[in-house]
Amino acid sequence: MTTEPATTPNEPTAIDGQPELDEYVANNDVVLADFYADWCGPCQMLEPTVETIAAETDAAVAKVDVDANQQLAAAYGVRGVPTLVLFADGEQAEELVGVQNESQLRTLVERYSE
């Protein structure tokens, strides 16, 4: 396995399963995991905001389809979508449920990016 360069991905990365999420969190200082579903209207509303956070902040953004990853969603106690879980230094630090605006997410990411 090759180690990725120390650059944060600037677009959301699809995650499939716990090992993939664990590796993604381990390889990035701050990770915003977006637990979503394709049929979820609020998730679709949140999508452009999540893409902006990935492009313009130090956070790596993980996209987790809860329908394809039910066990992973259950492991993080995701009961509704969208749910955003923020990881900092390999640990779960925050959880937000529902649509968040860009400034809320920027503030959250910046709090852990220093």
UniProtKB/TrEMBL annotation:
Protein name as catalogued: Thioredoxin
Coiled-coil parts of chain: none
Disulfide cross-links: 40-43
Matches recorded under Pfam families: Thioredoxin (PF00085)
Keywords: Disulfide bond, Electron transport, Redox-active center, Transport
Feature type site, description Contributes to redox potential value: 34, 41-42
Keyword Signal included in the entry's annotation: no
Recorded superkingdom: Archaea
Gene this chain is encoded by: trxA
Record: active site: 40 (nucleophile), 43 (nucleophile)
Domain Thioredoxin: 1-114
